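A further point concerns the way the authors explain their paired sequence and structure data. For illustration, here is how one protein appears when written out as sequence plus structure tokens:
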Amino acid sequence: MEWLNGPLVWAIDAWHQPLYLFPRDCPRIVVWPLESSAPGDWAEWCGGSAARMMAFVETEWAETIGGGAIYRYRLPDSGFRSLDDAGMWVSATTVDPLAVERIDDLPAGLRAQGVELRVVHDLGMLRGVWSSTLHASGIRLRNARTWSPEA
């Protein structure tokens, strides 16, 4: 998959788009249950929340998220190749967006997608979620307070 290192247009499918309803550099861990997930894992990590996903961010990012805005581009379906990884698609050719939407209230955008936002002191305390039966997605963790890949 060396071709992934070249210039690409990246896209995310509708179901997974909450992973990217954050300021670009914001470290976050987003988890959701799979069909095979043990009910106890969701209860342990997410307190039995009724949300379809739980997003964890560190305290320092709460204000940035609350006051941030992002742009969501709606792209055509054709010309993209699935990476078979959390809804990610790529195109090696230029893509003209069908529409552009500014999202000014990121917490409301997350709630509208069925995502509960939880603010924690340190994302490192969630390292064990990858050993659970839940799906865990960590994005921009290098920007987290104390995250290190070796721990």
Remarks:
- The CA atoms of residues 26 and 61 lie 7 Å apart.
